[in-house]
Amino acid sequence: MVGTAVQSARRDIMRRFGALVVPVISLAALVWVLFLARGTTAQPAVRDPGEFAVTLLDGVTFAGLLFVVASGFTLIFGLMRTVNMAHGSLFLLAGFTAIALQQKMVGKTTNIAPEDVTLMSWIVPLIVAAALAALLGVLLQQVFLRWNQGQELRQALITIAISVVLADQMLRQFGGLAKTMVWPGAVSHFIEIFGQRYATSRLFMLAVAVVVGVALWLWLTKTRMGMVIRAGVDDEPMVRALGINVTLIFAVTFFVGAFLAGVGGVMGASFAGAATGSDGAWLLNSLVVVIIGGLGSIKGAVAGSLLYGLVSAFAPVYLPTQYTFYAVIFSFVLLALVLAVRPYGLFGRPA
Amino acid sequence: MRPDTTTGATSGDPVVELRSVVVAFGGLLALGGVDLDVAQGERLAILGPNGAGKTTLFNVVAGDLVPTEGSVVLKGVDCTHLPSRHRPRLGVGRTYQKARSFPGLAVGDNLYLAVVGRHGRQRALLPRSGDHSWRDRAAAAAESVWLYDRLDTRVADLSHGQKRQLEIGMAIVTEPDVLLLDEPASGLSRGERERLTGLLDELAADSTLLLIEHDMDVAFKVARRIVVMSDGKIVASGTPEEIQANALVHEIYLGSEALT
């Protein structure tokens, strides 16, 4: 009894501490960015709104990509409690596949200019590659994970093994050099924002993310299957006890989650290129986003993506130049802060 | 009405038949050979101290637990090894000791999902336009458990008593022939208990009710037959009056508790 009292007192202190610390840190960061920003490459935002606006857009558009990838990850975890460590591999596989397909459609393998790329020769590879990732995801789930439902550690280890195998096979098939998917010419322009040039392809990426997010939201809230999935996130054994076919729901959810990894992979390949190693990096990105937002919550994936995207865009620009190398640490500072205040993430609940 | 229910038990036929059911958890004998027949339309309450095996017995009937030995026959169908997700289609509905529903969903959606599960075939999950009758059934069930004005309220925002009401609604919306209620009155206020008793009394005459209950008022009012369990065995069975008069029952379970 005494132990629980101490624990609850500690939790209370942490909550109050968090309620105080989070606004203070946010305010300090805002003041720094708006008025001070000493010794940085950028001017304070009030004097150089262009730099600020561009950094903000960088953060939000990157958040769009993060959301697409992480929403698939969190959907699978939320319903099945499966931590799919092969999520990054599905991401990279879709990226490589889409690049190969685009090269076929355009008819060139090198020096593809945006003018060569029609909207179709971006969207068709996107859908085909994402469908491939989705089918592979369902195959993984049916062949390896179905029999280990509820054994979280075993499932994580199986998916790690699969990601190692997939990484080697992709290296063999696509080679070790980074490749890039080319944005369609129709969206490869620049616009002026406060005197700064900004690539419309990044805004296009954000638009795709918004479309994906809205479609996901409509599916989860307006359809019968979406309702069953939300119920399953709440209490999966109870859905089973009601007599609903959970096996089918699991397969569909894995399909959609892997499809989202694929869509993200194609967007990522267009945005930053596809290369050996980005599978691991994007698995880590997804993990960071969903840990910040709360595992299993789509709302959390939105919030986590925005926070992580903004911090990783602002840190390198608004840190004093001699500290720019440490910018990457700030993503993990964000993670540590969120976990200290809300151990289950912003929208997470205890399992 | 129920195309997926093939057996047509007439009133008085046993709908639940347990034959020497044994459940062992490792070395612990939770049920030590239980025989129980429940006829259609019967109102049966199971009493017994904590650890007597009441909930284990429920889990066996509901299919959440496969017995170590013995057989479970529901409406003439051997269900010993039939998983719980097939039970709603056989007409078995249950509630849990701790109220279980989907806190993130609205009351209406919870009831609706229970209807979906009753029709739980593959295509029941596909979107269809003609599901108004399912929605209507959900609304009717909400009305019978006094939650009609809460159809759009998230379950997380309901009171404990309302959650209990909802859970019973989710069980009766499937029009079960056998309804298993695990301590439906626990945590309810006096007024809520009276409403619950009224609700259970109003159930269709041919639906069978199995009830685990600690609250004597509710158990003795609702049940026509009472079974007393102790240490995984049935030690007494009879009408409420017989049980109240049974000295053995007083000794093992009721103890010093006054029966009023």
How would you sum up this structure, described in words?
Chain A has a single domain, classed as ABC transporter involved in vitamin B12 uptake, BtuC, CATH 1.10.3470. Chain A is 72% helix and 2% strand. Chain A contains twelve helices and two strands. Chain A has a two-stranded antiparallel sheet with strand order 1-2. In chain B, the strands form two sheets. In chain B, strands 6-7-8-3-9-10 form a six-stranded mixed β-sheet, sandwiched between helices. Chain B has 260 residues and is of the alpha/beta class. The A-B interface holds A 223-225, 227-228, 230-231, 233-235, 238-246, 248-249 and B 62, 64, 84-89, 94, 100-105, 109-110, 112-114, 116-118, 120-122, 124-128, 131, 170, 174.
* Portion of residues within helices of chain B: 25-40%
Please identify, by name, the CATH architecture of chain A. Answer: Orthogonal Bundle
Global geometry of chain A: globular
User: In CATH, what is the homologous superfamily of the largest domain in chain B?
Assistant: P-loop containing nucleotide triphosphate hydrolases
How much of the sequence lies in strands of chain A comes to under 5%
Q: Classify the secondary structure makeup of chain A into a structural class.
A: mainly alpha
Q: Based on CA inertia axes, which overall geometry of chain B fits? A: globular
Q: What CATH architecture of the largest domain in chain B do you see?
A: 3-Layer(aba) Sandwich
Number of DSSP strands of chain A? 2
Radius of gyration of chain A: 21 Å
Major sheet of chain A, described briefly? 2 strands, antiparallel
Q: Mean pLDDT of chain A, rounded to whole units?
A: 88
Total strands of chain B: the figure is 10
Query: Strands of the largest sheet of chain B, in order across it?
Result: 6-7-8-3-9-10
Largest interface, C-beta within 8 A: A-B, 21 and 34 residues
The top-level CATH class of the largest domain in chain B is Alpha Beta
* Total number of helices of chain B: 9
